[in-house]
Design goal:
The chain is α/β, with parallel strands linked by helices. The chain has one domain (7-200, 243-297): Ribonucleoside hydrolase-like (Inosine-uridine Nucleoside N-ribohydrolase, Chain A). It has helices at 17-27, 46-59, 83-86, 108-118, 132-140, 144-147, 170-174, 176-183, 194-197, 204-210, 216-236, 244-250, 300-317, and strands at residues 7-13, 32-39, 67-69, 123-127, 150-154, 189-192, 201-202, 241-242, 258-263, 265-267, 278-280, 292-298. An eight-stranded mixed beta sheet has the order 3-2-1-4-5-6-12-9, with helices on both faces. Strands 7-8 form a two-stranded antiparallel sheet. The longest helix has 21 residues, at 216-236. Bound molecules: beta-D-ribofuranose and calcium ion. Calcium ion is lined by residues 14, 16, 19, 42-43, 128-129, 245. Calcium ion (CA) binds next to loops.
Length: 319
């Protein structure tokens, strides 16, 4: 890996167990300066995901990172949360102390706009929840699409089965209309769909490696992922848990984890069984230009080693 200047990152997130791991990875990675976090609905309500974000930052000595509360509802659809996947609080069996810090005043979508417009071409957006905040920001200030440096989005299932319906991935199913706005906005998007994330499984062996270090960080990872692993076992017969969101964040500074194709990708917003389905025009039938770079190949161990090393380093620094 060649050394570049650290990237300024805005994280839009719905913690969420794997979202929490993405926050920890961001704090543990010198390639990243985490400029701020906007919380969104998804794995839990926005009140809860905001609280979780603040609590995780406090645990990891990251309370200097500003946190903003964003949208609590999808743009058009009814709310859909996922307690069966992430638990009632969004953090599985983990119990973190109530945060001492508060979210900053202002809406998450405005924070995204102000951050991007005040540093044109400098800021990388990483969106790992339903895309409501990002879509609202684009509607409020369309110039952000040309002023953001790049956007990494966790969502969709291109040639992979859905994880929420037979056809749809959770983030695109929860707010397909927001995904539609973002996908067709002209933002320079890199998408990490289930096609690659479902090959990155955090196993009990990985957990046991981390648990050799006694730290609130490793305890949190154990308590949260135990719930997530039970979900994967019961619903999907997967031994371990899929850590979609930290993998998406890792691509901002280690793009070689994945192989990519530039593709014209769309999301179904019709009201049938395909709602939220994401699909790519691989043979270019419609002669439309590519609207994103899609990760379709992955080196899972390259990512897992990075993730485990960074978690070990963070855990050793926090006892
Ligand atoms: C996505 O949905 C959520 O359950 C995860 O946090 C991830 O962002 C995977 O489909
Ligand atoms: Ca998420």
């Amino acid at each position: 890996m060649t050394w570049n200047m650290p990237k300024h990152i805005l994280l839009d997130t719905d913690p969420g167990i794997d979202d929490s791991l993405a926050i920890l990875l961001a704090l543990a990675s010198p390639e990243i300066i985490l400029d701020g976090i906007s919380a969104v609905h998804g794995n839990a309500s926005t009140n809860q995901t905001t609280r979780n974000t603040l609590a995780i930052l406090e645990m990891a000595k990251g309370s200097h990172v500003p946190v903003y509360k964003g949208c609590d509802l999808p743009l058009v659809k009814e709310s859909l949360l996922s307690p069966e996947t992430h638990g009632d609080t969004g953090l599985g069996y983990a119990k973190l102390p109530g945060p001492q810090t508060q979210p900053r005043a202002g809406h998450g979508s405005d924070f995204l706009i102000e951050s991007i417009m005040s540093q044109p071409g400098e800021v990388t957006l990483v969106a790992i929840g339903p895309l409501t905040n990002v879509a609202l920001a684009i509607r409020k200030e369309p110039r952000i699409v040309k002023n953001v440096k790049e956007a990494f989005v966790m969502g969709g299932a291109i040639q992979h089965a859905g994880n929420t319906t037979a056809l749809a991935e959770f983030n695109t199913f929860v707010d397909p209309h927001a995904a539609h706005i973002v996908f067709h906005s002209g933002m320079p998007i890199t998408l990490t769909p289930l096609d690659v994330t479902y090959q990155c499984i955090f196993t009990v062996d990985d957990l046991n490696r981390l648990l050799k270090i006694a730290s609130p960080i490793t305890k949190f990872i154990a308590d949260s992922t135990r719930f997530y692993m039970e979900f994967h076992d019961e619903y999907q017969k997967i031994d371990g848990c899929v850590i979609n969101d930290p993998m998406t964040l890792a691509l901002t500074f280690m793009p070689e984890i994945c192989d990519y194709q530039n593709l014209a990708v769309d999301v179904d917003i019709s009201t049938g069984v395909g709602l939220g389905n994401t699909f790519a025009d691989f043979y270019n039938y419609e002669k439309k230009p590519a609207n994103m770079r899609v990760a379709l190949g992955v080196r899972p161990r390259m990512f897992m080693e990075l993730f485990l090393e960074r978690m070990e380093k963070l855990a050793k620094s926090i006892s």
